[in-house]
Design brief:
The protein is α+β, with helices and mostly antiparallel strands and about 150 residues long. Helices cover about 40% and strands about 25% of the residues. It has one domain: Alpha-Beta Plaits, CATH 3.30.70.100.
Amino acid sequence: MDMTYSVGSRILKTFQQFLQYYEASSLACGVVIIKADLGDEQLKLLENHMHNQKPEVGAQFSYDASEGLLGILLDDCHLDSTHDYSFYVKEFLEQNGQLKGPLLIGSFPENGHHAEQMMFSMIWIQMISESEAKEINIYNHRQNTEVNTFHPYR
């Protein structure tokens, strides 16, 4: 799996053990990959904000400054809960001028059978996307380049 570390290496390294655990245990986890511009202090503010907004959700955050991508891993979250969580993240980042493009969301095992591969694909899609639209897209493992878009609360 060495090739995965050339893309989104910080995010994948941070979450690798969690993803392997979720997959081996057949537990659900939500994944959010976001184009954002954050520093360490802003990341801490986001983490605190999300803990206050959604204290019932266990969340891990990882930011790859070189790629401009934020990864969030949500414990025991299916797609509907991941989607709900992403609205709060989107609102916070927009209000602070840190959202630089779309949010891509998914949930293991709903959107992919292999958690690490799903996250790798999601990171890759975000990296190659030139979109600056600040919308929430759902990862589609059957067609990695096709994403479905939610538009209800833009």
